[in-house]
From TrEMBL:
Keyword Transcription tagged: yes
Protein name: AraC family transcriptional regulator
SMART domains: HTH_ARAC
Keyword Transport: no
Originating organism: Hymenobacter profundi
Phylogenetic lineage: Bacteria, Pseudomonadati, Bacteroidota, Cytophagia, Cytophagales
Amino acid sequence: MSYPTLLHPLHTHEQLTTLVENRTVYSLDAFELNVFETHRVAEQVPLSMGHLVLTTMLRGKKVMHLPGRPAFDYLPGESVLVGENQTMVIDFPEATDEAPTQCLAVAIPTETIQQTVDLLNEEYPHAEAHLPWHLDTAEHAHLTNTPELTGTLERLVQLSRDTGRVKDVLANFTIQEMLVRLMQTQARQLLFHNYARHATSHRFAAVVQYIKQHLADKLTIDKLSNLACMSKATFFRVFRQELGITPVEYINQERLAEAKRLLRQPLASVADVCYRVGFTSTAYFQRLFKQTEGLTPGAYRKRCL
């Protein structure tokens, strides 16, 4: 089946046709979705798609070269945001016919991005006025997918294959959600991994720093909202709005990550780990750990030792 071309054609089509066994293209009013499968080892393959592109690895491994940064491994569960008219240079070190490299690329028109960013900045401004909603194609272009971003991408794929009459209407809403989820994911990366650098200039970075330094303590929304100089309701709402996760979910996420580290120590009991990371109920700790990791703390500890 052929699809109308929404975006600029691939600038390096001749090189890619010798390397990509299958390129499936789905074009809708709001975006163009490409699925690439590469079946042989190759190096230094340039690719530009004109518009801003969110790429997501589905299978295999690439090595990505982007302007202004060192080359890096690109693996399933990760995404890379490539700027408008930016060229990515790609190595395929492990691709074979039996184990092809597979990647999803969503190309988004500039006007769609601008409309979404403008709407967010007007109706849902950030807590810090000097840091408005925006897409970062430089420092935080390479990111680990959140469950929310992954879910939105899956819905985009489903919509692309849909033959329903209203799919373009649904696609418009879904691409906007994907852009929001993408910006929230970048904000998480900025604050959760670089909080110390921004603790004096971003109230949520200061909150993240406090949480990390006081995991074993009783952490209340009252305390955190006071630290952010916000009311409880505003703090809870804006934290979730900017980061796509509630403060309580973030605290639990950090406590579980520390619990996993402690469970890898042979002398640490499950109950001891539970209380050392700030949980007050072993039953709740066990239930939350299994819900998140798919196995109990005891089973996780046994697997790691």
